[in-house]
Design brief:
Number of helices: 7
Strand content: 5-15%
Distance between the termini: 19 Å
Radius of gyration: 25 Å
Bound molecules: zinc ion
Low-confidence stretches: 1-16
Structural class: alpha+beta
């Protein structure tokens, strides 16, 4: 879904120049939830590792895709998702560093708890071992094995740093999945509440040229602040059923703010990529109105 920051010439459509600031309360709540889920994830994964000798966060697909780390990083950062679900506001600027800290920090937490466990098991012997030297030993003594099929490989030595880097990346990408979901939502420019999708209208034409002509019409109306007129023009263009040779389509989506009632119309041209259609970034145009907009199929 396109994002509100792609907005074109906001001044010309009578919009506020700067979006409303994020809510400090929502950001703090999400941060607290994120901290809680990363702590819980870290403790749970550490417990499973020491109790069952199974490090879920180290599971990979084909030895290279860190699926366990991705899911763990995602679970660690899920508190941010929950926080912003409870209090649906635009996340503040600190979301990205927060989410990354929660996901990658969880990996560090697992290692630190394991370090404490090993130290306790070694008794007096462990007193001289620092966390860093423990990390080094544990990275270099990494082994790989095919789930229950083969015995563990010899230790990887310095190559273990590569598998560990892949693991860190997996945790980070898990957190980024939560981040990109929250960023892709549409938020009200006026009050920063998350907007609700009211409807979506898709149009295909037999000839691509016809769609481009209609697009010029619709975007001109949007830029002039005539949202109802733009929707009327879009409704009148082409058909909602796809033609066999359609390589481009236009989509008009309408969002409504639950708080201030403001309606936002988003127009975009889309091209197919595999099974899905993707918006052309330069074609995205947004306009806002305080009158409610209806959208037919
Ligand atoms: Zn609003």
């Amino acid at each position: 879904m396109a994002q509100i920051r792609s907005e074109q010439s906001p001044a010309s459509i009578g919009d506020l120049k700067r979006p409303a600031p994020s809510s400090l309360f929502a950001d703090s709540l999400a941060c607290a939830c994120g901290l809680l889920t990363s702590l819980l994830t870290g403790v749970l994964l550490w417990f499973v590792t020491v109790k069952f000798h199974f490090a879920f966060h180290k599971v990979t697909l084909w030895f290279i895709v860190p699926i366990g780390a991705f899911l763990s990083g995602w679970a660690a950062a899920s508190g941010y998702y929950l926080g912003y679900q409870m209090y649906q506001r635009r996340p503040g600027r600190l979301l990205l560093p927060n989410v990354l800290a929660a996901s990658v920090g969880t990996l560090l937490l697992i290692h630190y708890l394991t370090y404490l466990t090993v130290r306790a098991a070694l008794g007096k012997l462990g007193d001289t071992m620092s966390f860093l030297s423990f990390l080094d030993i544990s990275v270099r003594s990494t082994t790989v094995r095919l789930m229950g099929l083969t015995p563990p490989s010899p230790t990887l030595g310095h190559f273990g740093y590569i598998t560990t880097a892949i693991e860190v990346l997996g945790f980070a990408v898990g957190g980024l999945a939560v981040y990109s979901y929250l960023r892709s939502e549409v938020y009200c420019v006026r009050c920063s509440w998350r907007m609700k999708l009211k409807g979506k209208q898709v149009r295909y034409t037999k000839q691509s040229e016809d769609l481009l002509v209609a697009t010029a019409d619709v975007t001109a109306a949007l830029k002039a602040g005539n949202v109802a007129g733009a929707i009327e023009r879009h409704t009148a263009c082409g058909s909602f059923a796809r033609f066999p040779n359609s390589i481009i389509r236009s989509v008009c989506s309408v969002y409504a703010c639950r708080h201030c009632g403001r309606n936002t119309a988003e127009f975009a041209l889309q091209r197919p990529q595999g099974e899905q259609w993707h918006s052309l970034r330069e074609s995205i145009t947004l306009a806002h109105t305080d009158s409610p907009i209806g959208l037919s199929r």
